[in-house]
Amino acid sequence: MSYTVAALYQFTPLPDAEALRAPLLALCESLGLTGTLLIAREGINGTVAGTQDAIAAFLGALREGPLLAGRLDGLECKLSGAQAPPFRHMKVKFKPEIVTFDCGTTDPTGDVGTRVAPEDWNALLDRPDLLVIDTRNAFEVGLGTFRGAVDPGIRRFGDFRDYADRLDPAAQPAVALFCTGGIRCEKAGAYLKAKGFAEVHLLQGGILKYLERVPEGESRWQGDCFVFDGRIALGHGLDERPDHPPEALR
Fold first, then answer.
1. Residues 114-248, CATH architecture
2. Strand 114-116 to strand 199-203: parallel, antiparallel, or no bridges (unpaired)?
3. Which tens digits make up the pLDDT trace of 159-217?
4. Are 224 and 145 contacting, i.e. CB atoms less than 8 angstroms apart?
5. Do the strands 34-40 and 90-94 form a parallel or antiparallel pair, or are they unpaired?
6. CATH 3.30.70.100 placement within the chain
7. Which of 18, 25, 123, 231 is 20 to 30 Å apart from 168, CA to CA?
8. Does the structure show a pLDDT above 70 at 249?
9. In Å, how far are 54, 112, 166, 196 from 185, measured between CA atoms?
10. Could you say which residues form the signal peptide (predicted)?
11. Closest listed residue to residue 182, CA positions, set 115, 92, 96, 109
């Protein structure tokens, strides 16, 4: 049996987020899904796995069902496959943030920069005045990254603020950011825009969307992309990487 894996997120006001936890868990369990969803007053984030039909029903319920009443119509989602169950259980957690950064001080629903489609990312990378930053942690960068990208050397995403505070917007006005699925870049982009960086570009859909859409022969990506489930890493075409041993299921 094969599984469909959906990595999803959207920043959107959810003032009733805590009350949504139990019905979201019930929805996932009714469809036989496994994985983790994080829900906060700033939005939703997570990765879930199940049959193709179950994932389709789940995404339809999020986008169009009465539970969220159209509040996730801009849901960012990447679909990939797995030959073995990538998770053991289904968890839905209420959190202060759907991606931990600065306790909600940075607003990712405002100006986060310019989103760049994966098909246009290579042309952007050719700009000589551009600082390209990998916003992921050092372990993730070690598995793979874009040629020429700067590794900020962070252990967790919240440390990105310290790195950004050492940059000079006047000396480096044009910046491009990327991460696994796009969510960390939105907070990082909002933080840089608030600090006065004139140009901030984000890889829309993150590395996963780039690996899905850009042919390997045209790709600037080197290595594999770490994912937050038992598959460990994916390559071009979002194929599982057999050279990474399976992680203990979560």
1. 3-Layer(aba) Sandwich (3.40)
2. parallel
3. 999 999 999 999 998 999 999 999 999 999 999 999 999 999 999 999 999 999 999 99
4. no
5. parallel
6. 3-94
7. 123
8. no
9. 29, 8, 18, 16
10. none
11. 115
Distances in Å between the Cα of 99 and the Cα atoms of 10, 57, 157, 180 are 11, 25, 8, 12
Q: Tokens representing 186? A: 């939105």
**Backbone angles phi and psi of 129, in degrees to 5:** -90, 5
In the three-class reduction of DSSP (H, G, I as helix; E, B as strand; rest coil), residue 223 is classed as: strand
Do the beta carbons of residue 58 and residue 27 sit within 8 Å?
Answer: yes
List every span in the chain annotated with CATH 3.40.250.10.
Answer: 114-248
First and final CA of the chain: distance in angstroms?
A: 19
How are strands ordered across the β-sheet holding 43-50?
76-82, 3-11, 43-50, 34-40, 90-94
Reduced to 3 states, what is the DSSP secondary structure of residue 125?
Answer: helix
Q: What fold does the segment set 3-94 form as a domain? A: Alpha-Beta Plaits (3.30.70)
- 172-184 residue pLDDT tens: 989 999 999 999 9
Catalytic-role residue among 28, 179, 185, 225: 179
Q: Is 179 a catalytic residue?
A: yes
State pTM to two decimals. Answer: 0.89
What secondary structure, in 3-state letters, does 86-118 show?
CCCCEEEEECCCCCCCCCCCCCCCCCCCEEECH
Vertex 21, ends 18 and 27: CA angle to 5°? 155
pLDDT digits (tens, 9 = 90+) for 110-166: 999 999 999 999 999 999 999 999 999 999 999 999 999 999 999 999 999 999 999
